[in-house]
Amino acid sequence: MTARIEQGVQGPAWEDVLLRDGTIARVRGAVAGDRDRLVRLHDALSERDRRERFFHVGHHVGEHFVDDLLPLLTSGDAVAKLATVDGHVVGLATAMKTARDGEAELALVVAEGYAQHGVATLLLEHLAVAAAGSGVTDFVAYVMADNAAAFDVIRHSGFEITSIPHEETVELRFPVRLTDQVLEAMISREQRADADSLRALLRPSSVAVIGASRRVDHAGHQVVRNLLRAGFTGTIHPVNPHSDYLLGLSCHPSMREVGPVDLAIVAVPAAEVLEAVRDCARSGVRNLVILASGFAEDGPEGQRLQDEVLSVARGAGMRLVGPNCLGVANTDPDVRLDATFSPTSVAHGRVAMMAQSGAVGIAALQRAHELGVGLSAFISSGNKADVSANDLLMYAAEDDATDVVALYLESFGNPRKFSRVARRLAVRKPVVALVGGSSRNGRQAAVGHTAASVTSTSGVEALFRQCGVIGVDGLEQLLQTTSVLANQPLPGGRRVGIVSNAGGPAILAADACERAGLRLTTLSAETMARIRETVPDASSVQMPVDLGSGVAGEAYSEVVSTIARSGEVDMLIVLRTALPALSYASFARALRTALRREPGDVGEPVTTVAVVLDQRGPSRPISAGRHHVPVFAFPEDAARALGPIATYAEWRAEPRRAVTEAASGSRAAARDVITRTSAVAPEGGRLAESDARQLLAAYGIEVLPSVLADGAEDAVDAAEWLGYPVAIKVADPEIIHRTDVGGVRLGLGSADEVRLAAHELLRLPAERPGLLVQRQVAAGVELIAGVTQDDVFGPLVMVGYGGTYTELIGDRSFRLTPLGRADAAAALSELRTAPLLSGYRGAPAVDAAAVERLLVCLGRLADDVPEVAEIDLNPVIVHERGVSVVDAKVRLRPLPQAPDPGLRNLRPPADAGEDC
After folding, report:
1. Same domain, 408 and 473
2. Strands 868-878 and 888-892
């Protein structure tokens, strides 16, 4: 984020943030040039506020405080964050360091009229992160005993507070670390503010369409047509200076004649958008949707224009959808908003959908209509200059009309926030996501299409696994899976039953279910006997059940009812092949009868989908009582939809644990290593073996002891001291794979063997000559573990099959930070070689729990020390008790300049502009 220019003085970067009522505020560090504004903030306080802030009511006390503060900011002995709205400072949070190491005194002041907007809590969040970055570990605050508002702010922040009462004041102390409890409180506050903001966007009482053309093929014309077709309950204002009427509505020559509206759809060419947005800002418009292309997706000039548009919108407090998008819709009967130029109407339902691509959005709306997937809300995000998937997730979490969220994404703006928000939502409502651009060619196309490349498939998969998002492979699977989730209950397990009137499709369904990770159930003898009694000439009463070509609707219904109520299946796939005995109408009636739930029925309903192989035209769900049965054209479609849903149901049924768990670690000791090595090599690079060992040890990761030897006799002395057998390696940390250059000798049991091996290794070319001598440990399961930095997703913790053949085997699993023991255990269980840990072919089981602890420690280190670019621990030998980290490599990078991903903030414009 670039610094903004303020009154001719370059100041610190600011961040746009939503307040409690949806107002956009700007938060940044205070600087010397803020003196007069900060003095005015304090001078405007009431006597009561001055007393609560300074414990007395002197008129110049605020000015004295500001004059004391500014030199401390310059010297680094204080940190301060201020918030502005419409250019006026509305709040200030300060942390002045005390004589006690790591402690700073906290103070908060908020302008009158903003006390109930969440300004104080917001500033406290940002101040805590900034203070922690400057070495502060604990805050202390002195609060008047009757200052209930201040107590509420600090107590509701989520920090662990210790209070010490005095005569008229209370001393509050708390650590500034963003624990899970603090993050949860932050997310809750952000979610409410963001949901309110999007609610205003999706529930407008008035809409202006700028560029409402009389040409029927123009996007502006189509938006007005769709608003009328949907029966929008508010007022519609077409804006066209060249027309008097459009589709029976009076046109306005400009926004100045329209005045304030809740939503403006900007349907003019890219070159005219900026001026249109300025008109909206002057007219008091609350929200914008920009349809035109020609912005960030077109290169640097388009990006500059997009940033300028966003800067104007933010300055006026407007949320923005797009540009380069299809529009927005809300099917609530009280709203009936269809502000898109889609040729397909948006049908009412309970799925909130976002499509980053407008073209994909058109196709998705068409196919959703065919599959009977009704929507509660639709947003085409386009270039995501402002509103993104994170906003929709927070809106859906608060929206009672939404049961499922479906996403098509081509990029992630803040994936770590996505992870936290999606995880929070997915425990209550399913989230289905398709990511375009996962292939190399797809990523290249996505760069040109959205000006934001998608990161590695590993990062996306890790993100989805951890936060419970259902990842799918194509648009059809996205909508089919969403259709099942919107119409059927979640399955209680992976047992699937198949009923068909023909053998071939049933076999195909069974094969597809196995590929999808589902388990074909085994029916009891009693259930099979009942099926045979109902259909005596059934071809098969075992799974898959083939009732034969002559089965009619009534008998088919009785068999489906028998299996669904048997308690022996969690999911049911019912198939119909076009045979005379079972018409589509009788098949539909059979399902309605079989799946009808009567009062007093015990047990949960079974997740049921239908496959109709002769289906032509839209595959509408079949109504079956409280639920509808989705209809697919092929057995493979049904299995592909059910497989990920079963995985999600298992994730949702797991007991919820904290995202992070305390790992042994000393951030101070790690910072010592980083500070020392960065002073020598500010550009980064690989750490020397001793420095890498010290950094890892700070987080409880012990590397097998080694001794650096300069020559053969030194190596012999080291071996005698360590004890035989030993291993010897070339010491140069720049050699990534020592075995590739013959740089390792193992199992050396005598001085002569060590001397001979040392002479051989010293003849190898190396930038840094020398040898490492290690005590050789007992054999065990060899793994690789480490950290890699992804440009978008941040640190990824990796675990996999290790040793010499790690690249050849390619068995690895990734997790995003922060991660806890449950995440680490899941990563281990995903490895194809995971059975080696539990004892394979008679081998003893090894200590998987020790590996989980190691991965958690790696994640904590990567989070605490962002300069770490890469950690490679290979091999990690897992024993029956404990692990041995045999070799460790660590590479550093310069500290990346980016806002903390845990903080509340809106997507920033990249251009320079004025804060106030």
Report:
1. yes
2. antiparallel
Confidence band for 911, pLDDT divided at 50, 70 and 90 = very low
Q: Supply angle C-alpha 646, 647, 652, rounded to 5.
A: 95
Q: Are 162 and 215 part of one and the same domain?
A: no
Per-residue b or e along 872-891, where b marks 16 or more CB atoms closer than 10 Å to that residue's CB: bbbbbbbbeebbbbbbbbbb
Helix, strand or coil, per DSSP, at residue 724? coil
pLDDT bucket at 437, cuts 50 / 70 / 90? low
Neighbouring residues of 23: CB distance < 8 A, sequence distance ≥ 6? 85, 117, 317
Asked whether residue 184 is assigned to any structural domain, the reply reads no
pLDDT higher at 615 or 344: 344
Cis peptide before 544 (omega within 30 of 0): yes
Q: What is the pLDDT of residue 687?
A: 92
Q: How far apart are CA 289 and CA 339, in angstroms?
A: 9
C-alpha 616/C-alpha 613 separation (Å) is 9
Beta carbons within 10 angstroms of residue 752's beta carbon: 10
Residue 88 sits in the same domain as residue 229: no
CA distances (Å), origin 790, targets 82, 139, 459, 860, 874? 32, 33, 8, 16, 20
E strand residue ranges, 560-705: 571-576, 607-612, 622-624, 627-629, 631-632, 685-686
| pLDDT value at residue 910 | 54
| Lookup result for tokens 């018409």 | 583
State the Cα–Cα distance between residues 136 and 128, nearest whole angstrom.
Answer: 9
> Are the C-beta atoms of residues 766 and 786 closer than 8 Å to each other?
no
Does 481 share its domain with 501? no
Residue 454, domain extent: 196-485
From CA 538, how far away is CA 46, in angstroms rounded?
86
**Residues 6 or more apart whose Cβ sits within 8 Å of residue 804:** 739
Backbone phi and psi for residue 870, each to the nearest 5 degrees, phi listed first:
-160, 140
Question: Dihedral of CA 207/211/213/218: which sign?
Answer: negative
- Does residue 506 surpass a pLDDT of 70? yes
- The answer to whether residues 55 and 200 belong to one domain is no
Q: Which residue has the tokens 């196309």?
A: 445
Please indicate, yes or no, if residue 477 is contained in any of the structural domains: yes
Poorest-pLDDT segment among 24-38, 217-231, 588-602 = 588-602
Classify burial at 415, counting beta carbons within 10 Å of its beta carbon; exposed 0-12, middle 13-18, buried 19 or more.
buried
Going from the C-alpha of 596 to that of each of 279, 586, 620, 622, the distances in angstroms are 57, 15, 18, 12
pTM of the full predicted structure? 0.84
Q: What is the CATH number of the domain that holds 751?
A: 3.30.1490.20
Looking at the predicted structure, is the pLDDT value of residue 649 above 60? yes
Same domain membership, residue 615 and residue 688: no
Q: Sign of torsion, CA 348 352 354 360?
A: negative
Residue 574 half-sphere exposure, CB side, CA atoms within 13 Å?
30
Together in a domain, 35 and 74: yes
Pull the structure tokens for residue 420.
């936290």
